[in-house]
Amino acid sequence: MERLMQVYRTVSEFRAFRSAVQGTLGFVPTMGYLHEGHLSLVKAASLENDLVVASIFVNPMQFNSTADLAAYPRDEKRDLSLFREMGVASVFVPSAEEMYPPRFQTYVQVEKMTQKLEGEYRPGHFRGVATVVAKLLNIVQPTRAYFGQKDAQQVAVIKQMVQDLNLPVEIGVCPTVREADGLAMSSRNVRLSPEERKAAVVLHKALAAAKAAFHRGEREPMRLHEMMLQVLHQEPLARVEYVSINDAVTLEPVITPTASPLLVSMAVFIGEIRLIDNMILV
Ligand code: AMP
What is the tens place of the pLDDT at every residue in 224-242? Predict the structure, then answer.
């Protein structure tokens, strides 16, 4: 028989639940509209903890435009039933007002590593991410919190914040879950037209080309970069925002061959939809 899953919409209700929890607690924060990527985080959390808590919160603070926020897909009923099937103990689903009441004025800013990559094209995005994740960690007080490698810079920023602020939590990172053709799963993918959906595979194709070259011994970042642009430019529906090669830990750009793991990442518009993807080359 399935355990009854609780849904809490206020911090005080959630805290009452939390105070009664014994043993280890795994936490999976999401913006909802769940797919296999999210569920892989729940699976990892279930394997490594006594109980799993998830959250659904479409965080207004991390969006760069109100149009993008308004267009973000939502289906709370379906999300809750998926979490229930996965054996999640409780789900925290706060409103924007619950998280950011009228006098709210405290923000978390991870400085250096948020200036590049996504941060360069989405000003304020990581301030929103770090602030909401810090709040959620303080509310949920998990033993471990789980994030997807799909959002590589988010992982780096959260790890840095946890280290800098001495937050008492372990960060678990799960591999990117992909569709059969290689497209990284994302809640935004439903906004692609059938034609755009086919074109979207080009991000993975470009990453796969770089990976293959790397494994053949190519270490020159400029050449890997060019190779990926060449693949992307073959797709007429794709508009490249950036393709970048960085140190996987510090996120510093890499311009000469190095022994450190490389983060190869990109943001590409397919029609109106902005997609990101990455791979680590070691
Ligand atoms: P989101 O709901 O998009 O904010 O994502 C919630 C969590 O799921 C984040 O830690 C994401 O990195 C992770 N995630 C999203 N897509 C994927 C994916 N395709 N594979 C693995 N993790 C993912």
Answer: 999 999 999 999 999 999 9
The pLDDT tens digits of the residues spanning 170-219 come to: 999 999 999 999 999 999 999 999 999 999 999 999 999 999 999 999 99
Expressed in angstroms and rounded, the spacing between residue 150 Cα and the centre of ligand 1 is: 6
Q: Which of 126, 150, 157, 186 to mutate to test the pocket of ligand 1 (most atoms within 8 A of CB)?
A: 150
Question: Which residue has the least CA distance to atom 14 on ligand 1?
Answer: 148
Ligand 1: centre distance to CA 69 (Å) = 17
Per-residue pLDDT band at 1 (split at 50, 70, 90): very low
In this structure, the residues whose C-beta lies within 6 A of any atom of ligand 1 are 30-31, 37-38, 40-41, 147-148, 150-151, 174, 176-177, 184-187
Find the 38 Cα to ligand 1 centroid distance in Å. 5
Query: Is 38 annotated as catalytic?
Result: yes
Q: For the segment 30-81, what is each residue's pLDDT rounded down to a tens digit?
A: 999 999 999 999 999 999 999 999 999 999 999 999 999 999 999 999 999 9
| DSSP characters over 16-35 | HHHHT--S-EEEEEE-SS--
List of long-range contacts for 138-142, beta carbons under 8 Å, 24+ apart: 139/11, 139/14, 139/15, 139/18, 139/92, 140/14, 140/18, 140/25, 140/27, 140/53, 140/55, 140/92, 141/18, 141/25, 142/25, 142/26, 142/27, 142/49, 142/53, 142/169
pLDDT confidence bin for 249, thresholds 50/70/90: confident
Residue with CA at minimum distance from ligand 1 atom 17: 37
